[in-house]
């Protein structure tokens, strides 16, 4: 009985566009945070581990964001593997979510962490203005790519259900 | 980590805590290996990875007790804490020592008492994840943000008590969050994951604050303090990621089984019809 059941081609789960997008946005945020940590903190040594001007709220927000990134990377990976296993991954929506996550973190880090909370600056001992512009424009660009991909994914999904 | 750091002249002597924790860890590993061998000889399945995990955890505790640790006094202290309070507890807990003990013991008074203890009200309370997290990370805040750390450098008994607490609280926290051994009250994944997140935040904030300000009453070299704080910050990340992976992998296996059952159920009527 069991053997014959396994030979039956079972229908895969229907694609889950919203879940695909959210899971990949989590992965995008965590990925960008990891890039920030590895490239700017560790390899280039531009960012400082602790900046004297850091406030208590800043420390708390940094700890929360940092831990959430680490755990988000792990959770996102397993949620992604679960979507793949059930063949429920909607690839277009997944890419859109990933870019939205990348850009969202980049812009949040540039505006809230660097400027509002003043956790640390991009680089020390230089005029930081061009770095801030480059950083935040890169974030906006990634967000725009994500938004374009999301609109295209939504259009395609509508087209597929209409036909 | 070692009491010896306070007295450079006595560097060879790991102190009360060092010797007792090392001997205790090696005894526990020996008992574990014997018990798992007995299970396997009688034909039960017991993964070798669990034996490896328990052995590595026990070796970590023993090494932190008597072995040399790199860096200045505070860095070495922090590496020792990371091993004893976080990494070794995870390795020991994932090896499911309680399950192994219950399976290897014959139906006798000792086994009955152990089971009664595991299901008792105090254990149920202590393994409530947020409380376990509070005992673990709250203890660290007490240690580094009061004069306690400075006092442990001069009083061997206090030093031993603090390190015993770090190991016990680390074991309790990991046990409560991972929940791989049989306890009566099962907590949902959402609560355990949220507890892990909150504990990780408190740990990260404490590590960064140590970078800026040493424990009260100490006069540490800035370089040593900074490296120690970063060991705590990034080392904590690694172990938190490992605990998160253990939780996520358990979720992945459980949802996979549920999904297969659902598919088989939905496929069965088609076969019959």
Automatic annotation (TrEMBL), chain A:
Could you tell me which InterPro entries the record lists for this protein?
DUF2243_membrane
Taking the record's annotation, the residue ranges forming a coiled coil are: none
The record's annotation in Pfam families points to: DUF2243
Keywords tagged on the record: Membrane, Transmembrane, Transmembrane helix
| Membrane-spanning intervals of the chain | 21-44, 64-81, 88-108, 133-154
Organism superkingdom = Bacteria
Tell me what this protein is called.
Putative membrane protein
Biological source species: Streptomyces candidus
Automatic annotation (TrEMBL), chain B:
The question of whether Membrane is a record keyword is answered with yes
Residue intervals passing through the bilayer: 16-35, 47-66, 78-102, 123-144, 156-177, 189-211, 231-252
Q: Which UniProt keywords apply?
A: Cell membrane, Membrane, Transmembrane, Transmembrane helix
Where found?
Cell membrane
Pfam families cross-referenced by the UniProt entry: Caa3_CtaG
Q: What membrane topology does this protein have? A: Multi-pass membrane protein
| Residues in coiled coil | none
The cross-references to InterPro entries, in alphabetical order and at most eight, read: Caa3_assmbl_CtaG-rel
- Decide whether keyword Cell membrane is in the record: yes
Q: What is this protein called?
A: Putative membrane protein
